Amino acid sequence: MTASFDAIHSLDAIEVLLALCLTASALVCLFDRHLVRACYFFVAFAAAMTAAWLQLGAPWLAAVELVLGVGLTGPCFFYALGHVLPGASSPLERDKFSEPWSRVAMRMVLALAWVVMVGAAIRYVVADMAYAPSEHPLLVAGVVIAATALGAFALHRHLLRRLLAFNLLGSAVFMLLAGVAGTSANAQALISVGLLVAWLGSMLGALLIRQLLHLEGVEALGRDGKPGEGAT
Amino acid sequence: MIWRFGLFDSTFEPLLPTHWALLVALGLPLLLGMLAALFPPKRAWPVVLASVPVLASGLMLLSAYDQAGLLRWHWDIAGVQLSLRLNGLSVLLLLMTQVIGGAAALYTPGYLRLSETGPLARWLWPLMGVVLSALSLIWLATDLLTLYAGLELMGLAAVGMLMLSGKVAALVAGMRYLLLALMGSLTYLLGVALILGHWGRLDLQGLAEVVEPGPVAWFAAALIGAGLALKAALFPLHAWLTPVHENAWTPVSALHAALVIKASLFILLQLWSILLPDAFYAPRVIAWLGLLAIVWGGLLAWRTDSLKTLVASSTVGQLGYLMVAFPLLLGPDIAPLPRALAWEGFWLQLMGHAFAKAAMFMAAGNLILATGESTLKGLAGTSRRLPLSLLVFGIASITLMGLPPSSGFTAKWLLLQAMVISQQWWAVAALLIGTLLTAAYIFRLFRYCFDETAPRHRYQPLAPGMDLIALTLALIAFALGLLAHFPLELMHGGSP
């Protein structure tokens, strides 16, 4: 009896550690002004996701994440930065951030409203989470990462930043999906299709960013269409 | 509502030729697109040859449905259930996709030859094939996984097509569209996650039996609705639409406005009829937004100086008509007669708009290609030199304005009848305002075109058939109103 409790306890410790790793790498990836470093942290995040899928007992999903997330989506960002060989300097080292505070505050409020809604929905689906959130560390990490990624998506104008934020939001949504629906065959199929879509979208986005850089220079990436469109 | 989408058990199993027809309808556009990337067709006749088997598969599915009624397919792959259904509505939408897709493909060789399109032109073909295959899959799919895969394939290929022109404006608009479309798909996926977590299944027929109204259904419907509304450019999430069309190639715009945004709307209505049967507020909110969309889209189209912006903004307004019909289709306390009328009017309006908008984009593209001008003022004097392009534009506008005997008229007549019976007077007002605004922006365009005092310009001659293809589409939109009994019968067939 004690042994099995210990086993559950140690599993939980691994899950908590993974959740912390995921959240920390996601935060660095979303808000570090140094773009190349942010991309490295994206790869670290994808690797942590692979470990999380293994931990949740979905080895096939871990393999898909390893191939699509770490192996294919990560290089897309380095290609977009023009940082293909290690040591090569890129014209896109850092991005600038100059948003008025009123807009920042508004977008934060929107992202917060969104996370409250998602949190409430998940509370209904996973009823016991409302009473013991610490027993679902990966689910909690998913909610936190989804909220910050959405906030970052709404906040940033830089195209590469928004692409990164989309990918992190995608991973968080997959984590929530696995959290509420378990790792049934249906859930794994949905997540695999989602990972494929995220890779294709990132590849398309990276090609576009390269082309824009080629035609217009670094400035073109900072402005996303017109300045005054809605947040989400 | 659910039986109208064909979500019930079929009486007959599909026969062997029907399996083949299904395979051809789903796979051949993709294969032909890849083939065309290797050997890009320079003339229209290879495209004609290629579209014959595709259309034949659609007609075979139509006759199979005529004989056997609703058909279903099930597969179980490693514990994942995939299912397709073929009912009257999906046959109709499939045929619409094949005709408009074939017309766009026929239009493409001439267009690519006349406009300087750059080295990326050959990639248009496979992307077009992916879009058409994915659309066919969406009309048939009845589980959330296949719908998701089809939606994403279609969306990504559509983004790829829209930015092929390679101009900076097109790239910026395309990137914005890509990011928003991906966001929309994540929102949709989150809604699907809630459904899967709560009810543990993804097939629509099974879900229709187990879903009960409650917070989970509402949250899932809200998430799915928001994601799909973003992809369908429903007001107020339409801001990405105009810049994207402004810079895209003509056949791409035609396909996108006619079919791609309609697919999201189709999925939205189908899923909401399962998740929110007899909901009061959600369809009403959509309808009020639709009213605003009609006014706002009409005003945008009325005030603009650019021809393509006019056509694209008119899409926003025309989608408003479909949104206004939501309470009649989903709301509580609607008698069977107005619901049936609204159902007919909704799909007839959607199909009429698809054909008319494709024709209109092609006519606008022809005018821009011939004159070299993309503003309304640049069209001055075209009435003498390009009468056929203007005629196509005119016939398509008749459908959009809803003048008799076009399909726009028949559809609005059906919708009006349903609204009057169920006493939704504000919806009647919305329809009338929309007609007036459409007339306003169409006649503003014609005022410029019939300016006889304009100096003569040199016009680039168009490839043969470019006007004829557009004319055929415009005439189909027109004839759908006269021969409406055929599609209407199909829409209602297969009741249990």
TrEMBL record, chain A:
Taxonomic source organism: Vreelandella sedimenti
Keyword Transmembrane helix: yes
Signal sequence bounds: none
Keywords linked to the UniProt accession: Membrane, Transmembrane, Transmembrane helix
Parts of the chain that traverse the membrane: 13-31, 38-56, 62-85, 105-126, 138-156, 163-183, 189-209
Protein name: DUF4040 domain-containing protein
Entry coiled-coil feature ranges: none
UniProtKB/TrEMBL annotation, chain B:
InterPro entries: CPA3_Na-H_Antiporter_D, ND/Mrp_TM
Principal location class: membrane
Keyword Glycoprotein: no
Membrane topology: Multi-pass membrane protein
A cellular component term, taken from the record's GO annotations: plasma membrane
Bilayer-crossing regions: 20-39, 46-65, 85-108, 120-141, 147-165, 177-196, 216-241, 253-275, 281-302, 309-330, 350-370, 386-405, 425-446, 467-488
Subcellular location: Cell membrane; Membrane
Domain NADH:quinone oxidoreductase/Mrp antiporter transmembrane: 141-438
Keywords linked to the UniProt accession: Cell membrane, Membrane, Transmembrane, Transmembrane helix, Ubiquinone
Family: Belongs to the CPA3 antiporters (TC 2.A.63) subunit D family.
Name assigned to this protein: NADH-ubiquinone oxidoreductase
Organism: Vreelandella sedimenti
